[in-house]
């Protein structure tokens, strides 16, 4: 089934898109907008497990890919890991769109996660999109310290050469962040970088100014 981009754009006209890689501050920004303006918060990462229950190998091959053990999963090269994650995120795009369309009928929504930028530029207004990235230093210092990465870190530490695995993951994250920023710049999308010493509140305020959320949405 094909759905025209203008139809998707109309259905998602009340979605604010916070897109980016690790350590950029997506969750902090989305939660702030949720609290201040009463926006419905859609965390794309949290939906993937549920999507696996309806996925098929023919339609969503990356989402259905089977890894026999953690050593195989973490043994991928940075390039292999990146390519698989990109394919996985493309698999779930139609599912995100359907859920967001339903959610947006109840009121404005803030999306946080990964989404193909080329498609996003065709279905959302420039003022509804912000790309959050992190500097190499922030990723290297913060990635494995995050609470949501502790289960991953514990698994890695049970495998041979855990430091080498961590180094490969960080390399992938940094390379993908560079690629994301380059694509966003090419598409003339607003990019805000989380760098060492940059105040998170300042970043959040910049996002708020960019979005220009109507005051009628405010819960204050």
Question: What would you say this structure looks like, in words?
Answer:
With 220 residues, the chain is an alpha/beta fold. The protein has one domain (5-211): P-loop containing nucleotide triphosphate hydrolases (Rossmann fold). It is built from 12 helices and 5 strands. It has helices at 5-11, 26-37, 48-52, 61-64, 70-74, 78-91, 93-104, 117-123, 136-142, 150-156, 162-186, 200-211; strands at 15-20, 40-43, 109-113, 129-134, 191-194. Helix 2 (26-37) packs across helix 12 (200-211) and helix 6 (78-91) crosses helix 11 (162-186). The mean pLDDT is 93.
Quick summary:
53% of the residues lie in helices and 11% in strands.
């Amino acid at each position: 089934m094909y759905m025209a981009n203008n139809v998707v754009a109309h259905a998602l006209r009340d979605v604010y898109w916070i897109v980016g890689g690790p350590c950029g501050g997506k969750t902090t920004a989305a939660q702030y907008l949720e609290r201040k303006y009463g926006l419905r918060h859609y965390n794309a990462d949290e939906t993937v497990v549920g999507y696996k229950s309806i996925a098929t190998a023919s339609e969503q091959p990356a989402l259905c890919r089977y890894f026999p053990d953690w050593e195989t999963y973490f043994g991928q090269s940075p390039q292999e890991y990146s390519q698989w994650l990109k394919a996985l995120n493309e698999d779930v795009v139609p599912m995100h769109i359907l859920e967001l369309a339903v959610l947006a009928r109840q009121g404005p929504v803030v999306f946080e996660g990964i989404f193909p930028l080329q498609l996003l530029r065709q279905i959302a207004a420039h003022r509804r999109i912000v790309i959050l990235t992190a500097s190499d230093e922030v990723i290297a210092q913060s990635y494995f310290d995050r609470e949501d990465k502790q289960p991953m870190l514990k698994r890695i530490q049970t495998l041979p050469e855990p430091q080498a695995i961590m180094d490969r993951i960080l390399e992938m994250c940094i390379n993908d962040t560079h690629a994301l920023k380059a694509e966003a710049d090419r598409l003339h999308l607003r990019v805000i970088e989380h760098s060492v010493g940059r105040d998170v509140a300042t970043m959040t305020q910049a996002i708020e100014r960019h979005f220009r959320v109507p005051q009628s949405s405010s819960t204050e």
